[in-house]
Amino acid sequence: MKIGIEGQRLFRKKKHGMDMVALELIKNLQIIDKKNEYFIFVKPDEDDTVLKETSNFKIIKLEGGPYPTWEQFALPKAAKKYGCEILHCTSNTAPIFTKIPLVTILHDIIYMESSYFKILTGSASSYQKFGNVYRKLIVPRVVKNSDKIVTVSHFEKNRIAEFFGMSGDKRLTAIYNGVSTHFKPISNEQELKRVKEKYHLPDHFFFFLGNTDPKKNTKGTLKAFSDFLKQSKSDYKLVMLDYDTNELEKLLDEIGDKELINQIVLTGYVINTDLPAIYSLSSIFLYPSLRESFGIPMLEAMACGVPVITSNTSSMPEVSGDAAHIVDPFKPEEITEGIIKILHNNEYKNNLCEKGIERSKLFSWENMAKDYLKLYELIHVEHSKK
């Protein structure tokens, strides 16, 4: 088979969730599949050493302008040029005019849901707003045209089936994401010191991967942290990643605690290989999102032996099992109570840590790649009969 995989953003320096899933998929396919021929379509960018060609994996750098024109015109043209028998699009959208059998990953359909769409278009960044409007327009056509639609949890599969009227549709399936093997408890003092100094981390902190996407519940988490400090009088700080200071100040003004900014550390962008040390240094990982289709970060934290607080909504109970402290994300007081319980009950904390490490072992990128390979083979057989 000749298989094309869309990886438009793989070479950009600041990679995020969907980019890392695509990267891990390709790297693990390189390990398990030495037979089929792959063409990885990417946009040229500065981080072009993150993925290497192998004997049956060729990297195709495509120009083509902004994301929509690259995807709708440059990508299908290149896939046809290289004789792809399957085109796998990894980031929620795909070309709507292509005759090549199509596999599309719908990580989620939050942007299709009216209540969340209203939230996202109301307070998200301009880039997020444009992306959500584009997906809202394109995805219904993509769903109709795709040979296989893959999502990342059974919760999201049910949401997609309900929204698009696909109950019982064999084109729709769920394949879990994984957690990378470098996520593990870090005990090396030199490595911990290096990362602590690099990102100016405090001695005692909670870790939160919030961003400007409203679904991440940054406002609710800040309110919970503020209340915790008022109740405990502790010196804990909250470590956040690449977050805009002006946006943070707006949220602090909304919760009525402008001084909380003195207890928050903004690290800027953190490279993936430094994350295990940050998880390991943290006391608790906070992941009380309003809506997630999977939740890779909480598995990463679990794999590093850190207690996790997450939500009782969407996919998070499915993925976390009994290995996390579960809260109602719409009630900041429950997040605060969870923090206090974990800090003051060592038996409970240790139990969460042990369960978390075991839970994370159930999710691997290798298994994900094997499932996709089976899917490619199934599509190939189906089309060979036509």
Q: Which regions are unreliable across 5 or more consecutive residues at pLDDT < 50?
A: 116-123
User: What Rg do the Cα atoms give?
Assistant: 21 Å
The average pLDDT is 93
Number of helical stretches of at least 4 residues: 14
Computed structural class:
alpha/beta
Q: What is the number of independent domains?
A: 2
Instruction: Give helix and strand order, one letter per element, not per position.
Output: EHEEHEEHHEHEHEHEHEHEHEHEHHH
Let me know the number of strands: 13
First-to-last CA distance? 16 Å
Q: How is the CATH topology of the largest domain named?
A: Rossmann fold
- Strand percentage lies at 5-15%
Q: How does the major sheet shape up?
A: 7 strands, parallel
**CATH class of the largest domain, anyone?**
Alpha Beta
Strand order in space, largest sheet: 3-2-1-4-5-6-7
- What share of the residues lie within helices? 40-55%
What is the CATH superfamily classification of the largest domain?
Answer: Glycogen Phosphorylase B
Shape: globular
CATH architecture of the largest domain: 3-Layer(aba) Sandwich
Describe what is shown at a glance.
46% of the residues lie in helices and 14% in strands. The chain is an alpha/beta fold and 386 residues long. Helix 3 packs antiparallel against helix 4, helix 6 packs across helix 9 and helix 10 packs across helix 13.
Descriptive notes:
By secondary structure, the chain is an alpha/beta fold. The protein has two domains: 2-178 and 364-384, Glycogen Phosphorylase B (Rossmann fold, 3-Layer(aba) Sandwich); 189-360, Rossmann fold, CATH 3.40.50. The chain is built from 14 helices and 13 strands. A seven-stranded parallel β-sheet has the order 3-2-1-4-5-6-7, sandwiched between helices. A six-stranded parallel β-sheet has the order 10-9-8-11-12-13, sandwiched between helices. Helix 1 links the parallel strand 1 and strand 2. The chain is globular and about 70 Å long. Residues 116-123 have low confidence and may be disordered.
